[in-house]
Amino acid sequence: MIEYVQGHGEKLVSGEVNPKGLSINKNSLKASKKTPFSLTKLVELSLNLEKDYACAVDIEWVVKNNELYIVQCRPITVKGFVPDVYWSNTNVNENYPEAITPLLYSIARSSYYHYFKNLSKLLQIPEEDIQKLEKDYTNIIGAWGAKMYYNMSSIHRVINSSPFAKLLLKSFNNFVGYQNGEKEEPSPIQFKSKRIFIQQLLKLNQNLDNHVLTFENRVNEYQESVSKAFTPQLLQKAYHEFIEIRMHSWYHASLADFFAMIFHGVLGKFCDSYYGDKSEGIRNQLIQAIPNLVSSIPVQETWRVSNLIRENDAALELFKKEDPREIWSQIQYNQAFKLILENIKKYIKNWGFRCSGELMLTEDNYIDAPHKYIELLKGYLKQVHGDPNKLIHQKHLESLNAFKSFKQKIYLKNPLLLPLNCVKVQLFKFVVRQAKKGISSRERVRLKQALIYNEFKTVIQRIRKLYPEKFPEKNDLYFLKYQEIEELLSGSEILPNLSIKHRKAEFIKTSKLIYPDDFKSKLGLYPQPESVTVKTEAPIGNVLNGLTACGGFVKGRARVLSSVLEAQKLEKGDILITRQTDPGWASVFPLISGLVVERGGMLSHGAIVSREFGIPAVVGVPNATKRIIDGSLIEIKADTGEVILHD
User: Fold this and answer.
1) Most buried of 90, 330, 415, 504 (most Cβ within 10 A)?
2) 441: helix, coil or strand?
3) Are 343 and 308 in contact, with CB atoms under 8 Å apart?
4) CA dist., res. 60 & res. 73, Å (int)
5) Residue 410 and residue 389: Cα distance in Å, rounded?
6) In what helix (H) or strand (E) does residue 633 lie, and over which residues does it extend?
């Protein structure tokens, strides 16, 4: 590991400046960064000194007039070098926004292990390297303050073992919204591996629809089996079937993530080469308003139901005056509201599992609490807004125009190279088409993911009722790990007298700990919150910066909301400010004129849906919910990723 500064070394040791740094794999002795000194000579001398001392050494060195001087060399005094581990909750908090119980964490930890191991095969990582990365697969995620975090060190190490590591790493960071740079150096890869990677990529991409359909059918079959599972034997079968799907059959679903990430990244490279600083806005235009995107259907259906209510004067008056629980109670027994009730029930049956915290297991969705959907409808009725279908169509036309302009730009850049330009245009068409296909497939997969977790929640509650004395409260089983429930069902527990009460108390205590969104710890040491507090300088000026999710400009009142259940506060023209978005937020998008999200990437749910409706959106804006005052005047310059504060 090498750190260096220009000028006197005192700047480095005193902490006056942040040094530049890099690390080199001893087995390959190669680095991807260029340095203003002979890296080869420095590494050679360092290895010789390490050999002479027969231990790891700390070396101080100087380069002057291209001459390398070793000014100090001593054994490293700590008990072995303990590497840093970088943690981030970016993107993962979209699926798991609150404290996660032991059951959910144990499922997630094992499923991410298999997910990234399968991903490694897609990334054409050699089998011997996959074996060496075992510890990284095991530790892909962690939990701090009972909140889930990515182990970015392990993820970057896995990706860096693949061909095209640099592009893949940038694509992944963009995909999840991680903005703190690479944590590992890529390994050198032979040209042959890159060729095989491209061949395999194209072959798998041809069959993407089949893989997604296979996953969708598997989840539908699981839903059918759960509908019949009431006996202990059938519940045990349904429980194990979920675990099998989540751990081993998720490969089909992971391909959608993989290709969405890959082609989104490749499209970004294309846009960079022709549009420079404006490339992000152009890329977002090209992939906005994707036809038949499944995540926009709940929005369209909610708009349709709200129109039925508007057409019924008595219903409209009821929705304006009463609270959601009272409304739900009245429309179930009044024949005048029969059509409205039928449509609400239809929505809840088909889409009710799509709600904030839909993978949390402990959170109620619209199926569990229909009055929550009534509350959303009240928000729709507060303001007049256009048909989402027409808006999507309008944005689709804009996307087509951006596509045509891009083609013209390719032809005009080098008009004399017509044959080459024709090839580039065909490649461009292919990349745009595949980027849209990847995003669309990923949204289909995420819909079924929400469905299968809802069905699994049903199974857990039915299993709990088999043991009423052992687990008297609704959430008791969530405090066991999934392996312990397997043992419970088979009667093979090693510690049958588990204290759920003690676990709950520890969980509540742990979930009150607050950790930063991004921090580092030492490998093998459990960090306390006070030891990882990130010191940040007080922000200067009135401009916040993030990633462009959907271009455009808007000025209006900021509404800082912590939950989608606060959607009734939104009024026409408001700009939504929130920490993160999940599918439950999608239905409020027609109510807003702009979006600012504190955490999230270019393919987060909020980013995708904002592009569907052409809502200017900036994601990954640090401390947005703290810096922006609720009710204040702000403007979004989404093309440049800027949020300007006026109050």
Assistant:
1) 90
2) helix
3) yes
4) 6
5) 32
6) strand 633-637
Q: State whether residue 32 is helix, strand or coil.
A: coil
Amino acid type, 95: N
Q: Which long-range contacts (CB under 8 A, 24 or more apart) does 280-283 make?
A: 280/547, 280/548, 280/639, 280/641, 281/548, 281/551, 281/638, 281/639, 282/402, 282/406
Task: Compute CA distances 437 → 289, 556, 608, whole Å.
Answer: 12, 34, 13
Rounded distance between C-alpha atoms, residue 418 and residue 380, angstroms: 52
Bridge partners (DSSP) of residue 550 are 617
Q: Which DSSP string do the residues of 348-405 spell out, in sequence order?
A: HHHHTT-STTTTSSSS--TTT-HHHHHHHHHHHHTS----HHHHHHHHHHHHHHHHHH
- At 577 the three-state DSSP class reads strand
SS3 content of the chain, % helix, strand, coil (to 5): 55, 10, 35
Contact present, 235 and 449 (Cβ < 8 Å):
no
pLDDT tens-digit readout, 10-60 = 777 766 777 787 878 776 666 667 788 888 888 889 989 988 888 888 899
pTM of the model: 0.82
CA nearest to 205, candidates 446, 444, 441, 447: 441
- Beta partners for 141? 150
Judge whether residue 189 has pLDDT over 60: no
- The span from the CA of 507 to the CA of 501, in Å, is 10
Q: Which domains does the chain have, with CATH numbers?
A: 2-75 (no CATH), 294-381 (no CATH), 543-645 (3.50.30.10)
Residue 184: the pLDDT is: 59
CB 205, CB 429: distance < 8 Å: no
| Rounded CA separation 126/123 (Å) | 9
Give the separation between CA 619 and CA 545, rounded to whole angstroms: 9
Amino acid at 350: N
**Residue 644 bridge partners (DSSP):** 543, 635
340 sits in which H/E element: helix 338-351
Please classify residue 39 by burial: count the beta carbons closer than 10 Å to its beta carbon, then call 0-12 exposed, 13-18 middle and 19+ buried. Answer: middle
Instruction: Tell me how crowded residue 456 is: count the other CB atoms within 10 A of its CB.
Output: 23
Half-sphere exposure of 80 (CA within 13 A, CB side): 6
**What is the H or E stretch that residue 596 is in?**
strand 594-597
Residue owning tokens 């490339």: 279
CA 145 to CA 396: how far, in whole Å? Answer: 43
**Residue-wise DSSP of 130-146:** HHHTHHHHHTSEEEETT
DSSP count for the chain of H helices, then E strands:
24, 16
Residues 345 and 337: their CA atoms lie apart, in Å, by 12
641 three-class SS: coil
Q: How confident is the model over 92-150, as pLDDT tens digits?
A: 888 888 899 999 999 999 999 999 998 888 777 888 888 989 999 999 999 999 999 99
d(C-alpha 184, C-alpha 164), whole Å: 14
What CA–CA distance (Å, rounded) separates 406 from 411? 9
Residue 79 pLDDT grade (very low, low, confident, very high; cuts 50, 70, 90):
low
What is the sign of the dihedral through the CA atoms of 227, 231, 235 and 236? negative
The residue to which tokens 């065909």 are assigned: 426
Q: Provide the 3-class DSSP secondary structure of residue 347.
A: helix
Task: Classify burial at 176, counting beta carbons within 10 Å of its beta carbon; exposed 0-12, middle 13-18, buried 19 or more.
Answer: buried
Other Cβ atoms closer than 10 A to 646: 10
